[in-house]
Design goal:
By secondary structure, this protein is of the alpha/beta class. The protein folds into two domains: 2-151, Alpha/beta knot (3-Layer(aba) Sandwich); 184-249, tRNA(m1g37)methyltransferase, domain 2 (Trp Operon Repressor, Chain A, Orthogonal Bundle), CATH 1.10.1270. It is built from eleven helices and ten strands. It has helices at residues 14-18, 20-27, 64-74, 94-101, 118-123, 140-151, 162-165, 192-195, 199-217, 219-223, 229-249; strands spanning 2-7, 32-37, 50-51, 61-62, 81-91, 105-109, 115-116, 127-130, 184-185, 188-189. The strands form three sheets. It has a five-stranded parallel beta sheet with strand order 2-1-6-5-8. The mean pLDDT is 94. Bound molecules: adenine (ADE). Adenine binds next to strand 5.
């Protein structure tokens, strides 16, 4: 997979793309990152990339020429997905990360100004993505979030292949709690069942705790899921436990 990033602040990406899973994915040849300062594609000798808005008003607007030329310079025969990072975009999700992970070439456009000339949105980009309902100073941090979520899904990027499959959101449920040694820490014990060595019981416990966590924290996810019979049974157990604890509090 090839990932191009068009930004006025290329130095922001150095640490993130060079470290941890992303750095290793690059070393292993799983992904190729190209960070380009699109100021290089400005048509003016001063490297101007923005201008005042037609119709007046405050703020600056990113001009179309530098971004069109920068995207054209990184486009090969097959047209890439060109992704504009902005708060008005489609909300990012695990599902969208999975979809983007199947592409061969992604181009991320990161702006730092009030706005983009509308022709960039209409005729250059194929996708607009937001990472949440808040405003960042620019698209760079948002692009890093999306890139991280996409690269870790590439085969071989994570050391342990099963870790992407069992992730929160991939299964539709939040992950169950995890424990490691010591079995008792400051008087807080690891649940007995995890020390029992009884595999089937442990699998059942994990599913039940995933359901508990999702029910408590993200009931919207649970409502959208198809439930197996076992899940329905475990949910009934959880409801019964809730009722019992309500009774014991009264
Ligand atoms: N640029 C500024 N805020 C953003 C957000 N929430 N998501 C994506 N890009 C952005």
């Amino acid at each position: 997979m090839r990932i191009d990033i068009l930004t006025l602040f290329p130095e922001m990406f150095e640490g993130v793309l060079g470290s941890s899973i992303l750095g290793k994915a690059k070393e292993k040849g799983i992904v190729d990152f190209h960070v380009t300062n699109f100021r290089e594609f400005s048509e003016s000798k001063h490297g101007t990339v923005d201008d005042t808005p037609y119709g007046g008003g405050g703020g600056m607007v990113l001009k179309p020429e530098p971004l069109f030329r920068a995207v054209e310079a990184v486009t090969a025969e097959v047209k890439p997905r060109v992704i504009l990072m902005c708060p008005q975009g489609k909300p990012h999700s695990q599902k969208l990360a999975e979809e983007l992970a199947r592409e061969e070439h992604l181009v991320f456009v990161c702006g730092h100004y009030e706005g983009y000339d509308e022709r960039i949105r209409q005729y250059l980009v194929t996708d607009e993505i937001s990472i949440g309902d808040y405003v960042l100073t620019g698209g760079e941090l948002a692009a890093m979030v999306v890139i991280d979520s996409v690269v870790r899904l590439q085969p071989g990027a994570l050391g342990n292949e099963s870790s992407a499959v069992e992730d929160s959101f991939t299964t539709g449920l939040l992950e169950h709690p995890h424990y490691t040694r010591p079995a008792e820490f400051r008087g807080w014990k690891v649940p007995d069942i995890l020390l029992s060595g009884h595999h089937a019981n442990i699998v059942r416990w994990r599913l039940k705790e995933s359901l508990r966590r999702t029910k408590e924290r993200r009931p919207d996810l649970l409502a959208a899921m198809e439930m197996t019979e076992e899940m329905q049974k475990l949910l009934r157990e959880l409801e019964q436990e809730e009722k019992n604890s309500g009774l014991s509090k009264e």
